[in-house]
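Good morning,

Attaching, inline, the backbone tokens for the sequence recovery test we're adding to the shared suite. The designed sequence is right after.
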């Protein structure tokens, strides 16, 4: 009878695994996303620039109620927004980090109602929260973007209802034009090829119409046509953003193990004439369609999804995000997980929120802990912008939140439990009443013996694993892989993973990161003046962003907040 039960369970497992695998390939899993409403800004605004500078959120410029440019900025610290006065207005202006550590703020509309363009440049000092009028663009601009190419120059391009060129800010008070563009663009994508060149590409021209030519400009090279962009059209993404958020770092298989990722690639959202959404991978001057594990969803059970942002990349977590919303103002975040070498199709998960009727349509910003924030924006007109601020908890989401495939597991468990009940009923009818006690006793004894052997096996592995961690501190290696540790212990990766989960209740990364956080605490207390980037590196974290996110998730505080707290643990 026992063999029949095992056969039944085996068959059910095979069937469920096949159904599960097929469904996973055909459909993008959906997960409800936790959101947090932060304190509102002091001034309603849209068409502004949003930055995350360390642990501070900063909004710069834009326009306020009545479609009027505002000469203000705000920063969020200690749970509230603080207003700052700017030198000029920057309605649909642009910002960029520059080599001095300041923020270049420039351009925008000259008058209310989005009319005209300006030449103005000012610099924002994040440490002092001050602005100073500084210089002048070579060409007046709105809907432009800028990216620091290297320590000596920042590249600027794009315009609205005015001509377009490529110009350069080099620290002097007057920008200078470098070269003309092949086609004028509004809010173009600006993609660094390295420290010595940059590509400029976009979906719309300077009058808000789709570009007829699929051409890419280079700052220090010749323009070139991209046949793929004739079939796949880049989404138009108006507004200012830090183009460095779109960059993915990756390694090639023959790169040294100890070398950090240094190669650049980008994902650009695009659509074809059939209404399908795709992701174009840009690697140097190569444009290809990036494969995904399942089709990118443009519909949910709630309705049509309109994506409106560029792709944002959390390089520490190796995840990229694309944001959209539906008519009920339910926001969606398409999460794309990629491997270190960009060699596998992107694994997709579609996160969705409850309807957020007072959350504006605005380009978001990524925080150091991996969350996404939308500040201000509009719902349906430019005359009544919002001051609301929402945090989408992508990096600090509660650990007990359901995984994308949790409902499949629930279904599998329900089916298995049903099968088990039917099997027990069958046994109850097949076994004589006087034999029931003996059969149950034998089964219980066998199960107890199996569990004891399994626990002993896992306990032996976890004991040796803990000894290895304590004696050799292998968790300080940021490139540590579970396969390497399993090989050191002479066990399979699966057995090691299961041992950690069974005996400690953690996954391998969670268990290792706990030790890294404790090591970082010791370093912070012994050497409080150390740079956080050094603490992160010496504690085994791959980068400072990852360090901030994991440390805050573990302690509820940033490293500096934890160090200054009287009740630190």
């Amino acid at each position: 009878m026992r063999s029949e039960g095992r056969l039944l369970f085996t068959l059910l497992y095979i069937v469920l695994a096949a159904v599960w695998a097929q469904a996973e390939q055909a459909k993008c899993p959906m997960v409800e996303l936790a959101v947090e409403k932060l304190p509102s800004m002091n001034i309603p605004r849209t068409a502004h620039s949003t930055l995350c500078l360390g642990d501070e959120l900063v909004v710069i410029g834009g326009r306020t109620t009545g479609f009027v440019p505002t000469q203000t900025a705000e920063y969020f610290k200690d749970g509230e927004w603080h207003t700052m006065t700017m030198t000029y207005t920057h309605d649909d202006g642009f910002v960029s980090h520059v080599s001095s550590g300041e923020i270049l703020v420039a351009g925008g509309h000259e008058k209310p109602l989005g009319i005209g363009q300006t030449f103005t440049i000012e610099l924002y000092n994040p440490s002092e929260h001050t602005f100073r009028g500084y210089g002048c663009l070579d060409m007046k601009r709105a809907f432009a973007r800028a990216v620091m190419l290297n320590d000596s120059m920042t590249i600027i391009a794009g315009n609205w209802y005015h001509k377009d060129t490529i110009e350069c800010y080099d620290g002097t008070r007057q920008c200078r034009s470098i070269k003309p563009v092949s086609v004028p663009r509004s809010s173009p994508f600006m993609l660094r090829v390295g420290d010595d060149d940059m590509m400029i590409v976009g979906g719309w021209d300077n009058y808000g119409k789709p570009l007829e030519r699929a051409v890419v400009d280079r700052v220090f090279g010749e323009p070139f046509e991209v046949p793929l962009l004739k079939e796949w059209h880049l989404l138009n993404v108006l507004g200012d953003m830090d183009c460095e958020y779109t960059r993915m770092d990756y390694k090639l298989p023959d790169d040294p193990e100890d070398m950090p990722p240094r190669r650049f690639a980008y994902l650009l959202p695009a659509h074809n004439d059939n209404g399908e959404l795709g992701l174009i991978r840009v690697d140097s001057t190569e444009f290809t369609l990036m494969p995904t594990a399942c089709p990118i969803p443009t519909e949910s059970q709630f309705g049509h999804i309109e994506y409106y942002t560029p792709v944002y990349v959390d390089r520490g977590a190796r995840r990229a995000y694309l944001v959209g919303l539906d008519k009920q103002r339910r926001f969606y975040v398409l999460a794309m997980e990629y491997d270190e070498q960009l060699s596998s199709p992107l694994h997709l998960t579609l996160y969705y929120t409850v309807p957020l009727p007072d959350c504006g349509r605005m380009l978001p910003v990524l925080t150091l802990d991996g969350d996404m924030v939308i500040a201000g924006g509009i719902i349906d007109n430019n005359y009544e912008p919002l001051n609301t601020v929402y945090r989408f908890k992508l990096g600090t989401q509660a650990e007990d939140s359901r995984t994308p495939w949790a409902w499949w597991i629930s279904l599998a468990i329900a089916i298995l439990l049903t099968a088990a009940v039917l099997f027990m009923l069958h046994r109850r009818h097949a076994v004589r009443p006087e034999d029931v006690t003996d059969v149950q006793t034998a089964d219980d004894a066998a199960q107890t013996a199996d569990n004891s052997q399994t626990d002993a096996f896992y306990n032996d592995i976890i004991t040796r694993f803990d000894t290895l961690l304590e004696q050799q501190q292998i968790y300080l290696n940021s490139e540590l892989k579970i396969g390497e540790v399993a090989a050191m212990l002479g066990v399979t990766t699966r057995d090691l993973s299961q041992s950690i989960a069974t005996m400690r209740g953690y996954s391998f990364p969670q268990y290792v990161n706990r030790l890294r956080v404790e090591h970082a605490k010791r370093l912070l207390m012994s050497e409080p003046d150390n740079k956080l980037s050094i603490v992160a590196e010496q504690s085994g974290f791959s980068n400072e962003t990852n360090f901030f996110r994991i440390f805050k998730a573990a302690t509820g505080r940033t490293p500096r907040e934890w160090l200054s707290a009287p009740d630190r643990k």
